Backbone:
């Protein structure tokens, strides 16, 4: 498993995640199933982004790299607004 950063956002925060694929010959994507958020798989040199509002309830949500979900994953922590 490749360690990915723990992302922390405040409840109800507007967020934009930018995915930039700097690897040649490998696709990468981004998905948070529990929030219905995703960036399509990108080839080398491609950039994609997604904007969403963080849910109001605190908790943990897993994110994955769509073609490599068994190895490339991390968590998003939703914290209080204050």
Residues:
């Amino acid at each position: 498993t490749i360690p990915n950063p723990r992302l922390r956002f405040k409840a109800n925060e507007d967020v934009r995640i930018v995915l930039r694929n700097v690897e040649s010959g490998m696709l990468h994507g981004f998905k948070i199933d529990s929030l219905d958020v995703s960036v399509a798989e990108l080839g080398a040199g491609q950039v994609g982004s997604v904007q969403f509002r963080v849910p109001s309830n605190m908790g943990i949500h897993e994110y994955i790299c769509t073609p490599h979900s068994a190895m490339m994953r991390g968590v998003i922590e939703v914290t209080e607004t204050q």
User: Anything to note?
Assistant: The mean pLDDT is 93. Residues 2-79 form a domain with the Immunoglobulin-like fold (CATH 2.60.40.420).
